[in-house]
Design goal:
The chain is mostly helical and about 200 residues long. The chain has ten helices and no strands. The protein has two domains: about 50 residues, Homeodomain-like (Arc Repressor Mutant, subunit A); about 130 residues, Tetracycline Repressor, domain 2. The relative contact order is 0.10.
Length: about 200
């Protein structure tokens, strides 16, 4: 009879850290509390993570799928520009929906907590760089006008992130549903100004 494999302790600790942060905030989520909720000693946590910041850096990266995005974006590089952007935007919205609580907590914590701001900022920088490389490649291929890719990333990410937060988290009335049609029309509208043939 085969033995049941032991649980992934590293993942268990990251899940506990995120769960506690959602409940009581980052500052009150101490290593001691994470250990208590995980049923391990403090020493076990320090076996896997150098400190609380390192634990949260990895946990946030996992839960918001930043690493996955860095792998996903190159996979749509060869698709037509509009199709690729729709897939990227759809993936972003899907992750935001599935991780809406942690997105809300981390976003608000980043305003008042320097350590969370640094962790979130570092991960966002990596994500933005992946998107920048995508847009730079499309510009080099002549599919887009030559502009600062950071500006394009801000417009693209900012539009979908804020649209999601306003409609589904803040529940502001009379806003359009964030569905396939919304994503398609948004991308088409952006591309009306970004496509190479639009420039005279």
């Amino acid at each position: 009879m085969s033995e049941t494999p032991p649980p992934d302790r590293r993942q268990m600790l990251k899940d506990a850290a995120i769960r506690l942060a959602c409940e009581v905030g980052y500052e009150r989520t101490t290593i001691k509390e994470i250990a208590r909720h995980s049923g391990v000693t403090v020493g076990v946590i320090y076996h896997y993570f150098e400190n609380k910041e390192k634990l949260f850096h990895e946990a946030i990266n996992d839960h918001l799928k930043f690493s996955y995005f860095q792998e996903f974006i190159p996979s749509v590089m060869d698709l037509p520009l509009e199709e690729g952007l729709i897939k990227i935007a759809s993936m972003m919205i899907d992750v935001l929906r599935k991780r809406s609580q942690i997105v809300t907590v981390i976003s608000s914590e980043a305003f008042r907590n320097e350590k969370i701001r640094h962790i979130f900022g570092d991960l966002m920088t990596q994500f933005r760089q992946s998107l920048c490389r995508y847009f730079e490649a499309k510009m080099a291929a002549g599919e887009m006008v030559r502009v600062d890719p950071n500006l394009i990333v801000s417009m693209f990410f900012g539009h979908f992130f804020l649209s999601f937060m306003h409609k589904e988290r803040c529940q502001i009335a009379n806003l359009p549903e964030i569905d396939e049609n919304f994503i398609r029309i948004s991308v088409e509208t952006m591309l009306s100004g970004w496509r190479q043939e639009e420039r005279k």
